[in-house]
Design a protein that fits this description.
The protein is α+β, with helices and mostly antiparallel strands and 185 residues long. It folds into 2 domains: 1-55, no CATH class; 60-185, no CATH class. 36% of the residues lie in helices and 15% in strands. The protein is built from 5 helices and 5 strands. The chain has helices spanning 2-28, 32-35, 100-117, 122-126, 129-141; strands at 61-69, 80-81, 149-157, 167-172, 176-177. Strands 1, 2, 3, 4 and 5 form a 5-stranded antiparallel β-sheet that branches. α3 packs across α5 (129-141). It starts with a helix and ends in an 8-residue tail after the last strand. InterPro entries: DUF5819 (IPR043857).
């Protein structure tokens, strides 16, 4: 009887400790844009940006914009946001279906950001695999577009930055052929 009470008490204590650990970890890793109002309740403790399983904090949203032009280059469309949506649900904690494509695209866009930040030459960037992956993704998203050429723009949106600095362009591609059988350039 006594051992059952001790076992139950230890089980409850273990569950409580795990719950406290998860709550503290979540609070520690909550993005700044969501936790600004929580700071008074954590004793002035600075709550850093989101960084679960990543060396580089994901404190920005990356957007992929595309525009097309006609063969002569006289008609150029407006930029259109073609960023694939990332579906969030309660079940994504356990299983994350349909996330490989957006994750691969996000990783490629992050690699292009790193190349740009490290002053890589444009000719090197334009020949890189991340550049080609983003270009191929754009081709798949704009199949029905008018015009034989397109250009993409990677744009960071930083919600926690001052309003004048929230939109940050990363990279504008060359004009590329929508039909991959045509010449790029």
């Amino acid at each position: 009887m006594e051992s059952k009470i001790v076992s139950t008490a230890l089980g409850i204590a273990a569950i409580g400790a795990i719950g406290a650990h998860i709550a503290a970890t979540t609070l520690q890793n909550t993005p700044d844009s969501y936790n600004l109002d929580m700071r008074p309740y954590v004793g002035g403790w600075s709550v850093p940006g989101w960084r679960f399983f990543a060396p580089n904090p994901g404190n920005q949203n990356v957007h992929l914009l595309v525009r097309t032009r006609d063969a002569e280059g006289t008609l150029v469309s407006d930029w259109k946001d073609v960023t694939p949506p990332v579906h969030h649900s309660v079940f994504n904690v356990l299983i994350n279906p349909r996330s490989r494509g957006p994750k691969a695209l996000f990783d490629a866009m992050q690699q292009l950001t790193v190349m740009r930040d490290n002053y890589a030459g444009l000719d090197w960037i334009f020949k890189s695999l991340p550049y080609e992956l983003v270009a191929d993704t754009c081709r798949g998203l704009i199949k029905d577009s008018v015009g034989p050429r397109f250009q993409y723009l990677l744009m960071n949106y930083v919600p926690s930055a001052p309003e004048s600095e929230r939109m940050q362009p990363i990279l504008v591609s060359q004009w590329l052929a929508i039909n991959t059988e045509g010449a790029a350039g």
